[in-house]
Amino acid sequence: MYGIPSSLLLYSTNDCLHSRKASVNGAIAIKGANGNYLRVTNSGGLEFSSPVVDDDAVFVAQLIGDKLSLIGNNGKYVNMYYLEDVKCEGPGAGLVDGKTYYLSSDPGNAAYHGSLAVKKEEDQSCQFAIENIVKPNVSGTITIRTIDGRYMKVTGTNGLECSSQDLDDNAKFIVKQKGAKVALIGNNGKYVNMYYVHDVKCEGPSGGLDVGVAYHSNGTVCFTISGYQGQNGNTYYLSCDTGNAAYNGSLAVKRAEDSTCRFVIDNVGGLSGHIATNNMQVRCLLYPHWLIVCFRPKISGIIAIKDVHGRYLKVTDSNGLVFQSRNLDNQAKFHVKLQNGRLNLIGIRRSLLSVIKLTHLFFKGTMGNM
Known about the structure:
It comes from Serpula lacrymans var. lacrymans (strain S7.3). By secondary structure, the protein is mainly beta. It has 3 domains: 6-132, Trefoil (Acidic Fibroblast Growth Factor, subunit A) (Trefoil); 141-267, Trefoil (Trefoil (Acidic Fibroblast Growth Factor, subunit A)); 271-363, no CATH class. Helix content is 0%, strand content 46%. The protein has no helices and 34 strands. Strands 33-32-31-28-25-26-27-34 form an 8-stranded mixed β-sheet, with no helix packed on it. It has a 6-stranded antiparallel β-sheet with strand order 18-19-23-22-21-20, with no helix packed on it. Strands 7-6-3-12 form a 4-stranded antiparallel β-sheet, with no helix packed on it. The termini are far apart.
């Protein structure tokens, strides 16, 4: 097992090798002469087959003296067998002394199940472009902005649009990991989904579109779409452009990546709200399916609950619940009742009590004063 000499990683443009050194440190992507990026395969092999920089195409370069080691997304080191074949399955790194050979983009010996060939003399297949990669954290609750600052938002018709630079709860999405891909859940509790490999909305009831995340050197990402019927093995891209008007609010899917397919990701935590009781407030994380109270005032007696916009939670005439107005009246008042360690809220309407069943209500810690 051997490390990779830094002389193997050179910068090339228009098939000409330049003497200046690229910044080969930290997270990098390596592009071959065929325009594809080097990626780690499921068998720990290496191949220049990725059209975008996804997680499998990101390597961490560690400088050791005048040489470096490369670590793949599988946590293994790029290693060499018998001075002829290179894979990515080494548990640790070593260094080569003696004669200089060259890593190439050509396939290696088939017996190694996915290796790259090592060449004794440098040729065009040994020349690579290096891109320094910034990987944003695409997890938890995020917002998605276009490069000119417009937020992707869920509309009233369960559509998607990128038209406003104002941040509100409709611009927040929960990321759900789906293997190497992710699914997005909107503020309406629905999954981002796709129609006929052309249009994307946010109305999937229990699942939807699983997208890959590809990274760029400026910190932006694109959401890749692959593996669906009708794509013929090609990779498509979610864009911020408006889709087909017949879908009443969709975003277009593009066959080739352009500037409309690049997005800025911000981690924002949960959707926020407050509970007000006895002139005290507690900040909450409010997701489509659960409520987590992070700080605890004494929640007992009669309380009112309002959101960050000052609107009170009220019982409707049909025994529903809605954040409706800033006026505090009896419909906005709730009796708190503790039973077997659980909190029940009882609404007050015309001096009658109607029990409101709240599911998925959790409190951090035990009940009591702060």
